[in-house]
Amino acid sequence: MSLPLKDVKSSPLQIIISELNHLLNILPARVYQALSNQQKMEELLEIILDLGKIPIAHYRNNSLLLGDKPITRIDLERITERLGSFGEDNRVGIDSTLHRISALRNRKGTIIGLTCRVGRAICGDIIMIRDLLDSGQSILIMGCPGIGKTTALREIARLLADDLNRRVIIIDTSNEIAGDSDIPHPSIGKARRMQVANPNLQHRMMIEAIENHTPEVIVIDEIGTEMEAQAARTIAERGIQLIATAHGDGLASLVKNPTLSDLVGGIQSVILGDDEAQRRCTQKTVLERAADPTFPVAIEMHTSHRWSIHADVAHMVDIILRNWNSSSSLSRDYLSNKGLPIGSKTDKSSLLVANNLTNSLSTNFWKNSRSRTEDLNPNMKYDSTDMLVLPELIRIFCCGITCKLLNELILIYKWPLRLIDNVRSADIILSVPKYLSHNTLIRRHAQNHRIPILIIKSETVADIRQAIERVLSTYMN
User: Fold this and answer.
1) I want to staple 411 with a disulfide (CB 3.0 to 4.6 A). Which of 218, 292, 312, 336 is the partner?
2) What is the structure's pLDDT at 71?
3) Model's pTM, two decimal places?
């Protein structure tokens, strides 16, 4: 099957609204100029302005110093003069945008540093979980800070309100979802927004939203206290769909968190009888799930490109508590825009294949092999599901190659590959010559850890396909 390159690039999957100029205009002129000279502004995450230090721009995969002059008190004062007043959480937004500025203060309360975080509205990045949203089940989104939970939450609220015609109320504690203006940002569509005067009162606003505004869906960002977890359970028991986020790198970490474990059912100690303990082949005191989860569905955001969806949280928590290893979660790539409803035939077959694959890959083959790419066998073998069967997924780190294009090809050709953002976890590095020649850190890391580097001539479908098929044929041998 051939796919012209233009077909991939001519089908936009996302519409990104960043309004970056509003944020850049509050910066000192020299910082603004240094940022303007940089490329890939769409990957800018935040700008760090600390007193006495050179400003830093954090991008998705790297960080850059902005100029050679440190930030002064005058710089910080001029920036804060252009902003509104900071709240009790030391945050402030820019009017009519989604950007957020957070302050660092000394012991006297004087601002000595600013974190300018870029806010973006991305339309179309959650289309693959529309079937879950349409089901009416409550959904919990987990992930590390800065991975894109709030961005996904904003688009979920818009889709529920505009496309599914639900009555949606957003509890916007830090004004990060709908902006700092009294008029909500257009990115939330017809959803309504409730602002919170004090972050400590978020749980009260959650209950007030139900009592006063008759919502069908409540959207909450960052459930972080026990009272908020209890309020979430109260809302769920009233038959209202909850969409919320929580910090945590996975379902297992949430189970271990005593403050938030109630979101996934909570845990309790149970004493088994002698016969039951013998039947289970375990000790008499065990941990079991205390109640049904507040959120029947959970999403783990591993990277901005890869999500894992647990369609049955209760079952997964039971497995975790019994110290079992489970691979029953379904990973969907949001860049592919090809999400399938859970329960469809195609989805079941894909899940069956995915369950036979693990998330880690031994690199012993690569450490012991000195084969050149010219010697690889181009013949490919597929099973009845038309997917190449390998014992494990191959983790690829891309240098200078568009993740969007490679994700499309992975979906079309059903390659058992997984794109990662961290070169330390890679099994293979895929790069174009120009990019790799300027990145000595990646070359040095690959040499030290015996990670093979596969160089392709150009970023075209033909070159990428030829390189990947050579890699896969080597694994088949």
Assistant:
1) 336
2) 96
3) 0.64
